Amino acid sequence: MEIRWLEDFIALARTRHFSRAADDQHVTQPTFSRRIKLLEEEMGVTLINRQTLPLSLTPAGEEFLTLCEQVTDRVRLTRERLREISAGQQRRIMVAAPQSLLAHFLPEWLASSGWENRVQPYLRATGWIAHDYFQALARAECDLAICYWPVGRCDLDIDTSDCHHRVIGHERLIPVTGVTAQGEPHAVLPGTRQQPTPWLAYPKRGLLGSAIKAHLARLPQSTHLIAQSENLYAAGIKELLLLGYGMSWLPERCVSTELAEGTLVRAGDSRWDVPMELRLYRHQKQHHAELDGLWGELPSSSSYSRSQS
C-alpha cells in the first residue's frame, strides 16, 4: 500500500466524484479508479458505494477515511520535521568571540551544553574590537557574540539597545607579570610617579581597556603606569610577559597554567582584579529556527553564579 493511495481516497471522499478527484490528484481517471480498486483489494472490503449519486462511503469506508486522515497528517508532519532537521544540520549557528574566549571558554561551554554540533566559531571576529561585534550582529554577519562586559560602571561608547543578552559566565582580569632569574616579579603595582610601572595595554576603545581604566579610577590608591605597547590579543600580551616585558591584566582562565607553574606571578593583590561578566548577545531582529531554539534552551542569567568563573 502506498501513501498516495490514502491521499486518493481522501480526495474521492471529499469530491464524491471519480473524475474531479482524479483531476485534484493530477492523474487520469482510469489510473485513479485503478488505484482506488487496488486499495479496496488491499483492505479486503468495499470502501465506495458506487450505486449512489453522488458516490458515498460504505460504513467501512467511513471508518477507513478517519484512519487515512490520521496517517497522512502524521506523514506530513514527520516530513516537515525531517526537513527542519535537515535544514538545521546544514545551517549552524555562527558565534563571534575574542580569541581568548574562543580558546579558553567556548569549547568547554559548548561541550557542557551539548551544542558542539550546532554552533560554529566565526573566526573572522578574532581581530574585532567591541563595537565590531554589534555591527556584525546588526547586519547578520554572525548570529551570536560572546563578549567580556564590565561588572562595575564603565563609560562605553557602544549601542546595545537593539540586542538581547544573557550572562553565561564570569571572569576576572588579574594583574600578572613575568619573573626574573632570581624569581622576583618583573613589575608590580601600583608604581610611583617617579617610577611608573611598565604595562602592556589594550586598545583604548576596547572593552578590556575601558574596564581596567574604570576599575582603577574607583580605587582609593593612585596607580602609576606607563604603557609600553598596545595589543588587542591577550595571547600576544601573555607571550610578551613571559619574555619579561612589564605587567598587564589578563583573563584568569588564560593564565591559570602559567600561574600554577610559576612562569607568571601576580603583579598585585585581589584589589586590582577587574570583575567581568561573559555576555552572550543576539540582535533582536535576527531570527531563524536554530538560533531561536538554542536561545530558548539557555538558562536565565541568574542561574550563572560567580563560582563558574
Supply the key terms.
309 residues; alpha/beta; Arc Repressor Mutant, subunit A; D-Maltodextrin-Binding Protein, domain 2; disordered C terminus
General description of the model:
With 309 residues, the chain is of the alpha/beta class. It has two domains: 88 residues, Arc Repressor Mutant, subunit A (Orthogonal Bundle); 216 residues, D-Maltodextrin-Binding Protein, domain 2, CATH 3.40.190. It is 42% helix and 20% strand. It is built from eleven helices and eleven strands. The strands form three sheets. Strands 3, 4, 5, 6, 9, 10 and 11 form a seven-stranded mixed sheet that branches. It has a two-stranded antiparallel sheet with strand order 1-2. A hairpin with a 6-residue loop joins strand 1 and strand 2. Helix 1 crosses helix 3. The chain is rod-shaped, with a radius of gyration of 33 Å. The C terminus is likely disordered.
Please tell me the total number of domains: 2
Question: N-to-C SSE series?
Answer: HHHEEHEHHEHEEEHEHEHEEH
Helix content: 40-55%
How many DSSP E strands?
11
Radius of gyration: 33 Å
CATH hierarchy, class of the largest domain: Alpha Beta
Strand residue content: 15-25%
Q: Please summarize the sheet with the most strands.
A: 7 strands, mixed
CATH architecture of the largest domain: 3-Layer(aba) Sandwich
Report the structural category. Answer: alpha/beta
Write the CATH fold name of the largest domain: D-Maltodextrin-Binding Protein, domain 2
Terminal CA distance reads 59 Å
Overall pLDDT metric: 89
Low-confidence stretches: 302-309
The dominant shape is rod-shaped
